[in-house]
Amino acid sequence: MTQEEPAKKIRKIDFCSEIKVIPILDPKLTANTVPSTSYQAISLDNKKVIGQIIGRLKELPERLQHLKRVGKDGSVLISESREGAEKIIDELGNGEVRVENLKTVQVPSIKPSTRRQFDYAKQLWPTGFHPDHEIERLLDGTFLTSSHREYISSWIQKAIEIGNGSIAVQDSVLLSSASPSAHPLGHSVMEMVGSLPKRSESEYLGTGCDVFLANEPCAMCAMALVHFRVKRVFYACESKNGVLKEASAARFR
């Protein structure tokens, strides 16, 4: 097992100075676009029959339930394949629905997760979207209030002061803290997790906790944090063997 890196020297943080907290999010959330797929749609000259046609169609595939059935121009999604679309038209037996009015359109193949993705997706085809306000605040930088800034600064400084430390906090109350031990696997995170107070059988030890680290955790420590279901992880310095740069955490500057 890789030994944990020695703690880097970090200057004491001045609460009055400007700090920067950088959210590290899943690339699926930071992407501005969503993938697309082709679908068969029918253009209807008589818009009054749209409701009748939709009522006779099967539901869209489960993976495409985020799509609206009708496009901006009034065309209607009917099938993923040309062959399937022609069969549906034949079964409908409606003179208003003709094979020559079939067209291939591009539609978002997944539901957008962010406002930016939704803005892109709706240019392809109307789609449903329910914003996650916490994610939106992380993306636009408005998540960090002055009180939140001081909260993070304070606990990060404590993690640094105890020597390459790891601290678990819940509701602004210290639950557990530790620095590395002499044991080969005694990284600060492992020592901190080992001293977390026991909870009810229905809860994991770290449920709802914020964890503050002097250094970015290694793979072993990161998996321990995942296993114990901590809420958020903040760290001050990147590590050569750190693994959270591509995961969901927050880096402190």
Automatic annotation (TrEMBL):
Q: Name one GO cellular component term.
A: nucleus
Record InterPro entries: CMP_dCMP_dom, Cytidine_deaminase-like
**Which keywords does this Swiss-Prot/TrEMBL entry list?**
tRNA processing
Gene3D superfamilies according to UniProt: Cytidine Deaminase, domain 2 (3.40.140.10)
Q: Where is the CMP/dCMP-type deaminase domain?
A: 150-253
Q: Which organism is it from?
A: Caenorhabditis japonica
The protein, known as = CMP/dCMP-type deaminase domain-containing protein
Protein family per UniProt: Belongs to the cytidine and deoxycytidylate deaminase family. ADAT3 subfamily.
Give the GO terms filed under biological process for this record: tRNA processing
Under Gene Ontology molecular function, one entry of this record is: tRNA-specific adenosine-34 deaminase activity
Keyword check for Nucleus, yes or no: no
Pfam families given in the database record:
dCMP_cyt_deam_1
